[in-house]
Amino acid sequence: MTRTAPIELTCVELVALVTEYLEEALTPAERERFEHHLVYCVGCIEYLQQIRDAMKLAGAAKPAEVLTQEAEDKLLSMFRGLKK
């Protein structure tokens, strides 16, 4: 049996699959296509790393209920003061 090369994944398709990739929910064929795209696409490598970093930071964030009322009021005041 001859193995054929996977059909190339586009950047748009990779972005749509990134969450499933990180959750290890892709089929072996989809994972192969995803990782094959990363071999030559620097932009998607950077995007994947940004998503990993964002997930790490989100996991380290404290729940909102940890904020004091004073801190919440200060943050809300700052956001309201931002110019559009």
Shape: elongated
Helical percentage: 55-70%
Report, as a whole number of angstroms, the end-to-end distance: 61 Å
Structural class: mainly alpha
The number of distinct β-strands equals 0
How would you sum up the major sheet? none
Question: What integer value in Å does the Rg equal?
Answer: 20 Å
What average pLDDT do the residues reach?
85
Give an overview of the whole structure.
The structure is a single chain. The chain is an all-alpha fold and 84 residues long. Helices cover 67% and strands 0% of the residues. The chain contains four helices and no strands. The chain has helices spanning 11-22, 28-40, 42-60, 69-80. Helix 1 runs parallel beside helix 3. It is elongated, with a radius of gyration of 20 Å. The N and C termini lie far apart (61 Å).
